[in-house]
Amino acid sequence: MADSSGPPSGENLLFLTDDQLRKGIEAMFFAYRGFTADPDRILSEKGYGRAHHRAVHFINRSPGTTVNNLLSILGVTKQSLNRVLRSLIEDGLVESRIGKQDKRERHLFLTEAGEALERALSDAQRDRMRGAFRQAGPDAVSGFRQVLEAMMDAETRRHYKRLKEGGT
Amino acid sequence: MADSSGPPSGENLLFLTDDQLRKGIEAMFFAYRGFTADPDRILSEKGYGRAHHRAVHFINRSPGTTVNNLLSILGVTKQSLNRVLRSLIEDGLVESRIGKQDKRERHLFLTEAGEALERALSDAQRDRMRGAFRQAGPDAVSGFRQVLEAMMDAETRRHYKRLKEGGT
DNA sequence: CTTGGAATGTCAACAAGGCTGACATAATAT
DNA sequence: ATATTATGTCAGCCTTGTTGACATTCCAAG
Description:
- Two copies of one chain form a homodimer.
- Chain A is mainly α.
- Helix content of chain A is 67%, strand content 7%.
- The structure holds a DNA duplex.
């Protein structure tokens, strides 16, 4: 159970004690609350929720993405996603275009209003992230990303890395 | 909007570009899913949810804590928490003892069954965290924690630090 | 001793956002 | 021709959050 079973075998493995792990767990819990707090405020003003934020974020990230693709990134059922997409389309934030090659597919795009909402949400979230990054410094940020990446499911990590290539 | 407005003023501030921030945002989203995946599986087998996990975690962390204290840590309404606590008490996982000094207060403790569930949940979650920590290494873990701490709300960070002191 | 307020519990109602299952439609693939 | 895929939709259920109202118990101040 604990890591107190064996000797540290040469390396310093104190960062793997149950206590260190518990701190990491609590840090994740508390930090995620901060991470979502600012967008949540904006969203609730407009009658949306976190699910709308996610949809808008990934449509903005990959304009023209299909519903199926979005489903596999978000990891929810099509019924859940559809409820969210329907309201976004009705409110004129998202446009759904029938595919040219495969007419079964719908390609999703943000309208100008959708882009405005996305910008408001990501500005708020980036401000928080920027403050944390600046405070912690570049080396800490690198470690932060390394740990988070290692915490993902293998399949999720594929999505993350595919998206990551877009930048840099 | 972007950090491309001014020169990096001597330091290397490339880690604060919008693109780096976006990657951090997506890493948080994807990693949090992995972070909760293992406990979620155990919980759903037993008919519980994430809210039960949180309650059990923090009662284990601070045995004898009051309902009010738990409320301020979890950041939910008493009605939400009460629903969760009631089911845990009914199922014999949590014991609620009337306070000795102040008999209005209820002090919460895990029963043996409650401790067993807590152990199952935290073992699963620690395994994931340990794997990520080991893969990333001690310096990365330090950075991970620095960034997460800086991302919390000020009030939340107080709770986090108070809890943190318990260990070390 | 009375009264105000704090801590807690509980009831009702509601909403978001997950889920499953079933079914419909259109278009592509075999 | 038939099977499969992509999508949408309806109905219903669950968890977990919310608000508002009200009861109880008890400490503490007047």
